[in-house]
Design goal:
With 490 residues, the protein is mainly alpha-helical. The chain has three domains: 170 residues, HUPs (Rossmann fold, 3-Layer(aba) Sandwich), CATH 3.40.50.620; 121 residues, Serine Threonine Protein Phosphatase 5, Tetratricopeptide repeat (Alpha Horseshoe), CATH 1.25.40.80; 144 residues, DNA Cyclobutane Dipyrimidine Photolyase, subunit A, domain 3, CATH 1.10.579. It is built from 19 helices and six strands. It binds flavin-adenine dinucleotide and ligand FO1. Ligand FO1 binds next to strand 3 and helix 2.
Length: 490
């Protein structure tokens, strides 16, 4: 289904002006054009050079609306299609744990594209440098990119829009990560899950449509020799002391296998057990979702295909988390530039944290003590060790973990800084809107309400050890991480 948009001013993709217009040339058959926005006001010339998909966030071939759109556009103007990825040598503190997972996933992307006669180019350097060089060298006629609501990727696409405008080339951005494109879900920062939920569900039927296949590309073009991946790894300037994880095999194939395994083995107990860190009941999908190796839409469609009373609550719960909560995080980061600072919190939260910022703390820990799991709390230490050793802390514990950092830091600002730093350094799914919102929800009450006032937290929701003991077998969890023991451990 293609929905045309009225022509308006097409500013270069500023986050605040969500939906820019789309010139009529962008309309392709069988594609909901509201998934796209135009980042400069150039247009494509038919029968010129290839269409380029500049892959960044959504690192997969199939189930990728940006690549689907790029191929439809290339077929419409009868030109070749190619894909590139701009590898930056460091990115927001990512370590070899993250780059290893990402690059191994991209190797699979290159192979799959080659089988479809679609050349893949790994370009080392920033998009602002590399894309204009590539487009002039390969006489590209239009560029399609995917979308992330974070400061750095938004700046990347803005810079490229400007560079391509100098070459008279259009840049079209497609939200391939969300089911409902962020600029379609809402035109403002939403207050809470309850205010965005109905907006998302109302649009779900329009966007939860089966993906057309990305097919062998008939307008052929030379396929370059395969990438020198050793050289790519060597170009990295990353901390190699945070090792890669063994439990998660990178790449789309492994990610889809994980999805099937979740549906077969864990979906049934997901709703009942997802808040119990001693049970293996989560999907485990976040690393593949973060790197876009698997489409969240595919997960929602797969999980929702399970009918019957025994899984109904779990299907609903998974949709709530993977659709509503996740797309609420995207909304927050897109419309609130302070998504990773106290300034991003609501006035009531900043006020209450300010009132209590001088309250006496029973414990105050440094980053080094937190990082090395050297607090007085064995459960907190165990959660920290799970994250450091396995690259994935259980979702329930992430709330407790962050809230204790608020309680045991010298100030809320310091707490948020420490939580984000540790989260992005060790979580395989770090540097993600879910992470920034997870931390700011826990420490500054974003998307939450105020609770009864107490020292240090003020009206920010409180969580404590006793509360965890009422929810699950804390001792059993702590026992898995011997290094977490403290004098408190019984
Ligand atoms: P499941 O429970 O199986 O959920 C499936 C998917 O739904 C997740 O992969 C995720 O995409 C989405 N989801 C689940 N819970 C949430 C949530 N609370 N908010 C938004 N989306 C959600 N998630 C990240 O992807 N990266 C992070 O860096 C991250 N940091 C967090 C930090 C804190 C302090 C908190 C409280 C939460 C954080 N989360 C983060 C959200 C959530 O904890 C993880 O997405 C989830 O635990 C990932 O494991 P899973 O895929 O097995 O989750
Ligand atoms: N995106 C890129 O286009 N190039 C990179 O080199 C790159 C590295 C990278 C490392 C860790 C990580 O977690 C993400 C990384 N991304 C990179 C960004 C990713 O594509 C997403 O845009 C962001 O993670 C936002 O979700």
């Amino acid at each position: 289904m293609s929905r045309k948009r009225k022509l308006e001013d097409t500013s270069a993709g500023s986050a605040k002006k969500p939906a820019t217009s789309l010139a009529s040339w962008t309309t392709v058959e069988d594609f909901n054009i509201t998934r796209c926005r135009q980042l400069n006001d150039m247009h494509i010339e038919p029968f010129k050079g290839p269409v380029l998909y500049w892959m960044s966030r959504d690192q997969r071939v199939q189930d990728n609306w940006a690549l689907i759109f790029a191929q439809k556009l290339a077929n419409k103007v009868r030109v070749p299609l190619c894909v590139c990825f701009c590898l930056v040598s460091s990115f927001l503190g990512a370590t070899i744990r993250h780059y290893g997972f990402m690059l191994k996933g991209l190797q699979e992307v290159e192979k799959e594209l080659r089988s479809l006669q679609i050349p893949f180019y790994l370009l080392c350097g920033t998009a602002k440098q590399q894309i204009p060089l590539f487009t002039s060298q390969h006489k590209v006629s239009a560029v399609v990119c995917d979308f992330a609501p974070l400061r750095v990727p938004l700046q990347w696409s803005k810079d490229v829009a400007g560079e391509l405008k100098k070459q008279g080339l259009p840049l079209i951005q497609v939200d391939s990560h969300n089911i409902v494109p962020v600029w379609e879900a809402s035109d403002k920062q939403e207050y809470a899950a309850r205010t965005i939920r109905s907006k998302l569900h109302k649009k779900l039927p329009e966007y939860l449509e089966e993906f057309p296949l990305v097919e062998k590309h008939l307008h052929k073009q030379d396929i370059p020799p395969s990438t020198d991946w050793q050289k790519a790894f060597a170009s990295l300037r990353v901390d190699k002391s945070v090792g890669e994880v063994s439990w998660a095999t990178p790449g789309t194939r492994a990610g889809l296998k994980k999805l099937e395994e979740f549906c077969d083995k864990r979906l049934k107990q997901f709703d009942a057990k997802r808040n119990d860190p001693t049970s293996d009941s989560l999907s485990g999908l976040s690393p593949w979702l973060h790197f876009g190796q698997v489409s969240t839409q595919r997960c929602i469609m797969r999980v929702s295909s399970h009918k019957g009373s025994s899984v109904a609550a779990s299907v609903a719960s998974f949709v709530e988390e993977a659709f509503v909560r996740r797309e609420l995080s995207e909304n927050f980061c897109f419309y609130n530039n302070n998504y990773d600072s106290i300034n991003g919190a609501a006035d009531w939260a900043r006020a209450t944290l300010q009132v209590h910022c001088k309250d006496k703390r029973d414990h105050v820990y440094t980053l080094e003590q937190f990082e090395n799991a050297r607090t007085h709390d064995d459960l907190w230490n165990a959660a920290q060790l799970q994250m450091v050793n396995e690259g994935k802390m259980h979702g329930f514990l992430r709330m407790y973990w962050a809230k204790k950092i608020l309680e045991w830091s010298s100030s809320p600002q310091k707490a948020l800084e420490i939580a984000i730093y540790l989260n992005d350094r060790y979580e395989l799914d770090g540097r993600d809107p879910n992470g920034y919102v997870g931390c700011i929800w826990s420490i500054c009450g974003v998307h939450d309400q105020g609770w009864s006032e107490r020292p240090v937290f003020g009206k920010i929701r409180y969580m404590n050890y006793a509360g965890c003991c009422r929810k699950f077998d804390v001792k059993k969890f702590v026992a898995r991480y011997p290094g977490s023991k403290t004098t408190k451990s019984k």
